Amino acid sequence: RSKRRGRGQITVYSHEIAQEMKRATQLEQALRNAIIADEVDVHFQPIVDLRSDAVVGFEALARWCDADLGYVSPSVFVPLAEERGFIDALAEVLLRKAAQAALSWPKELFLSFNLSSAQLMDPATSTRLLAIVGQVGLDPRRLELEITETAVMADADVAQRIVSELRAAGVRVSLDDFGTGQSSLGRLRDFSFDKVKIDRAFVSRISADRASEHIVKAIVSMCEGLELEVVAEGIEHSSEALKLKALGCGMGQGYFYGKPADAVATMRYLSQRYRDVAAR
Ligand code: C2E
Ligand code: MG
Ligand code: MG
Ligand code: MG
């Protein structure tokens, strides 16, 4: 009897796997179609100088809402595009759109764009990305690329070459989600980064627990010594912003300063802050 029940469980389990695979394939097809139909969009979230509250740049965040599937998070569809081998096609449309939007912003504002791990394993990535910004006409010195510790770990030699090629062209590179990956602090020495983004996990607990406050304090002081800029991610409350300022953190990003918004809303936001930016 127990054997039969066991077999039944296996059947249910493999049925779930089959369902999961079917869903992934549906998602893949829908995403491939969305790329072709130009339905994948990019939103922008402000990054501010914590001392002056001035906007210094925007992070581009991929957005996709399918007619049948509804809103799909980039943390779902970006890894899917990587696994199914079309991350380059996705990244190209996203970077093209983001760079195009950035052309209308004041020149001193930078555009920050997320790179996926698969892109950091492909030696052609730097050439490809520089060609896209070149075609759009965005000064590469206004571009910043966010990479994660995990992505750097995957193939450190190739990643390092890509990063130095990009930096040689004037692109800045930041280490995203810092503190959550499994890399060692030695990465900060061996790799040339320009900026470190402290993960939201520390920021959201900075008011509640002392440990997070000490960790942020240590990261800020380490970055100061290494001459790296620091951005705190996921600031949702004024109390967090105040504490981060007190700890000497230079930049911040989060719902407290602004949620990700589409290109048009971003222009409207900028036109309220800059006299010379005309709202579309
Ligand atoms: P990330 O690069 O660490 O981006 C920050 C995430 O935190 C974004 O989620 C953003 O909307 C969210 N966020 C910002 N401020 C706050 C806040 O105050 N509170 C909370 N709770 N969340 C906040 P999102 O847009 O869902 O993106 C998730 C992840 O997907 C990103 O994490 C990034 O790893 C990836 N991603 C998004 N767009 C792209 C892209 O164009 N290319 C690649 N390769 N990855 C992307
Ligand atoms: Mg990011
Ligand atoms: Mg992040
Ligand atoms: Mg993240």
From TrEMBL:
> Which residue numbers delimit the EAL domain?
24-274
Top-level division of the source organism's lineage: Bacteria
- In Swiss-Prot or TrEMBL terms, this protein is called Diguanylate cyclase
Q: Parent protein range shown? A: 169 to 448 of 448
